Amino acid sequence: MGSSTCGEGEERSVKRGRILRWDGPTPPLIPHLNYAHSMIKRMATHGHTVALVESETGKQWTFNELCELVPRVSGGLAECGVGLGGRVLCLTHIHIDYTLVLLAIIYRGATCVPINTTLNAEELAHVLRVSEARWAVVHEACVSLAEAAFTYLPSTTLRKMLVMGESPTPDKPSLHDLFSHDPIPPLTTTDGLVPDKMAAIMPFSSGTTGPSKGVLFSHRTLHVPNMTHLFLEQLQPEKAKMTKEIYSRALLLLPVAHSYGHIMLVNNLFVGTTTVCLTKFTPTAFLETIQKYQIVRISLNVSDLEFYCIVPRVFSPTPHSIAIHPVPLIRPT
């Protein structure tokens, strides 16, 4: 890491001490760009590496496949009427297609509103009122919940609902129907996007302490962790290389609507980590997934820490190294 100096013998005294000048690498500038477009360009550098795996079925997406599909899904969303500044609800359990939905919405200049699936219909209706979401992408297991929530709102509120998985009715297309859509370019500043002002994502709290509360994150804000990561790579390249090797395969247990689950997922996409999505948790499935995919990183709910601490002992005498990261409590499912 670069040292901090005061110049060649120059020391300027101020009331609170000396002024220090940084002589290390120059920090990267925060891009004034569409966040999803920047993520796609970064993900393309990981090529044919597997990005996401569904633990139960083994279905997977490589980074190249994600980069190819996001503009297509975004084109399908555009055909549904989603445009600059639109709000799109995303109600889903852990699912490998969430990444496609998240990036396709942002690529289109709209705002993704990821929601906790443990909310009831009335609580979800509150989120819909506050977020002003007019489109919805819903996991097949959550369709009835979403439909019930929209009954609390005027009939003209919902413009289109897409389903992740098997759609129950023809009027609700499957997300997979968008995979064959012609790709479109991202919305940029030329199209009216203002990266430091316009929201890319609007997560909501879990509702454990009252009505769910939302917060807006701009494209620029989402760029900051990525730029920080790049800067740290500049400062400590050897450590960065070692960290990438250590965190090569991660297990996603936390809901994607939870801030820590979301952060872990997008960080993995940025650095090139393979993320294994545990779609249905049981102790047996959890342990078998760790063994099958040789998981080396897990983020988990602190309330379950006692259970997870037995993991290294289960695989004794030939365990592999696992980094366990506790996170704050989340609403139980």
TrEMBL record:
Subcellular location: Peroxisome
Annotated Gene Ontology cellular component terms: peroxisome
Membrane spanning stretches: none
AMP-dependent synthetase/ligase domain segment(s): 43-295
Coiled coil (UniProt feature): none
Keyword terms, alphabetized: Ligase, Peroxisome
Pfam families listed in its UniProt record: AMP-binding (PF00501)
Molecular function terms, GO-annotated: CoA-ligase activity
Keyword Repressor annotated: no
Top-level division of the source organism's lineage: Eukaryota
Protein family per UniProt: Belongs to the ATP-dependent AMP-binding enzyme family.
Name of the protein: AMP-dependent synthetase/ligase domain-containing protein
Provenance organism: Petrolisthes cinctipes
